[in-house]
Write a structure and sequence with these properties.
Layout (H helix, E strand, L loop, with lengths): L2 H22 L8 E5 L5 H9 L4 E4 L2 H8 L7 E4 L5 H7 L5 E5 L2 H8 L6 E6 L16 H11 L3 E7 L8 H25 L9 E3 L6 H6 L4 E4 L1 H4 L4
Parallel strand pairs: 1-2, 1-8, 2-3, 3-4, 4-5, 5-6, 6-7
The protein binds pyridoxal-5'-phosphate.
Length: about 240
């Protein structure tokens, strides 16, 4: 099998696992978006999955994404999932379908500078209280959300995202997923009370990677971010 055929077959296998997890959880596959995390992998691999009909891809590094994007179709829905530095934020504001990793005011301020265009964002939550990871403390989420809606009107809150600590037993990770789901419900109640006009769009829970995307779907993920299981190991 050629390298690209192998890629396509791995991709289809992941899609099937997503479908089965949805079925187990009694959810519709249409409610879960698979983001194929293509960081460190070349544009031709992204194009191969694009030709299979896939549109959602995730990238972590601004420069790498810019280099690849220029060679790829304009209707790809790019998801920025990396740690976001405020000095790079303005380069991605216009062309991302969704920015998953917004967790502080300095980044919001830079993203908001494009005042005419709306920018869809998720708020990153540190469910694991893990010092090594970004994200707002679950208790601090409503205040951060309020600060964003009041001060940065270009930013549209679409939900929450988490990266649990690595290497923990799957049942511990599942606990982080259910914590994020609860944090989401609390935030959604806040939105309903204070900004009902934003409620319809506040719908996403981004969680689950190669090691745990099926558990994440069972716990309510609407977006899973899968790299290694599709593209193979990164160098
Ligand atoms: C790299 C990355 C992924 C994909 O991880 P895999 O384990 O390769 O599936 C998902 N989410 C984030 C935030 C990442 O940085």
């Amino acid at each position: 099998m050629s390298e690209l055929d192998e890629l396509k077959s791995k991709f289809r296998a992941v899609m099937e696992r997503v479908d089965s997890a949805c079925e187990r959880a009694g959810r519709s596959s249409a409610d879960v978006t698979l983001v194929a995390v293509s960081k460190t992998h070349p544009a031709e691999m992204i194009r191969a999955l694009y030709e299979e009909g896939h549109r959602h891809f995730g990238e972590n590094y601004v420069q790498e994404w810019q280099d690849k994007r220029d060679f790829l179709p304009a209707d790809i829905c790019w998801h920025f999932i990396g740690h976001l530095q405020s000095n790079k934020a303005r380069y991605i504001a216009d062309d991302m379908h969704l920015i998953h990793s917004v967790d502080r005011k300095s980044v919001m301020k830079k993203l908001n500078r494009r005042s005419d265009a709306k920018v869809d964002v998720l708020l990153q939550v540190n469910t694991g209280n893990d010092q090594a990871k970004g994200g707002v403390d679950p208790d601090g989420l409503p205040a951060l959300l309020e600060g964003m809606v009041d001060n940065y009107p270009s930013l549209v809150p679409r939900g929450v995202m988490t990266i649990p600590p690595f290497g923990e037993p799957i049942e511990t990770t599942r606990g982080h997923f259910s914590d994020l789901r609860e944090t989401f419900e609390t935030a959604r109640a806040w939105v309903e009370e204070h900004h009902p006009e934003l409620l319809d769009g506040f719908e996403h829970i981004s969680m689950g990677m190669t090691a745990d995307f099926e558990e994440a779907i069972e716990e309510g993920a609407t977006i899973v971010r899968v790299g290694t299981a599709i593209f193979g190991a990164r160098d």
